Amino acid sequence: MDHFNSLKNYCEEIGCICLENEPMKLHTSFKIGGPARLFLRPQNGETAAKVLGKARELSLPVMVLGKGSDLLVNDRGLDCAVVAVDATCAKVELVDETTIRCSAGTPLSQLCAFACQHGLTGLEFAFGIPGCVGGAVYMNAGAYGGEMKDVLKETVHITPEGTFETADVSQLELSYRHSFYASYPGYCITEAVFSLKKGEKEQIRRKMDELMDARKSKQPLEYPSAGSTFKRPPGAFAAALIDQCALKGKRIGGAMVSEKHAGFVINYDNATCEDVLKLIEFIKKEVKEKTGYELECEVKIL
Length: 302
Description:
Number of helices: 8
Strand order of the largest sheet: 6-7-13-11-12
Number of domains: 3
């Protein structure tokens, strides 16, 4: 029996959902990606720790997946065990009057709605950002002048050795679209704690609605994508540089630079990973030649 079968049998024994050769395009916002050798969905953090520990014991490669909203998976698929910590593990609770604890699999929209419901301000910027809390912490997600590091207090993670640890925000090396977890992928975020401020529910709701309306008017939400494709270069904006190069509407295969927002590469017509990668490289080359700026991809490519 190979080690993947051993892990599969173990997961079935402990009640963890286990799928073989599961298409990753079903689990990424880009709707692109070949099959994962094993796709595992633990029902809580404790089960996730057991699954990760067993995979480590068997020396199997593992990828932890949230909502797959900032991810491009290759067309061949992933020869590893994908551990999905998504909405099936969602849990949000008040710790005290201004502190919220939630599981890593909690959708950001659910966290923001919970904060609003309890009259807590600080997370409005995150309303409408696709993905889950774990992924947002992993990349220090941000928008409209706010970032996760502004409101994050601490995290709980599983170490590569399989133990649970609590990490203060000061230990997480949060910077523009980066965290400690991006540098050390052997860690798995299971919880995050946020420190917010008291506010007026109606004002919070209005701000959230305003930002959502702005997203809908400016971003191609009607097409599959991974959100903003490129990081913001120092002293400029990626979308403006791409627009300056007249690349809106540029297509390679089924991938296209959005005509609505030049910072988005979208899955316009059954794009493959190869289509998207070729278009990204074309954009980087054009922008470098015509503006002198070097664009860095924000999307994680597997």
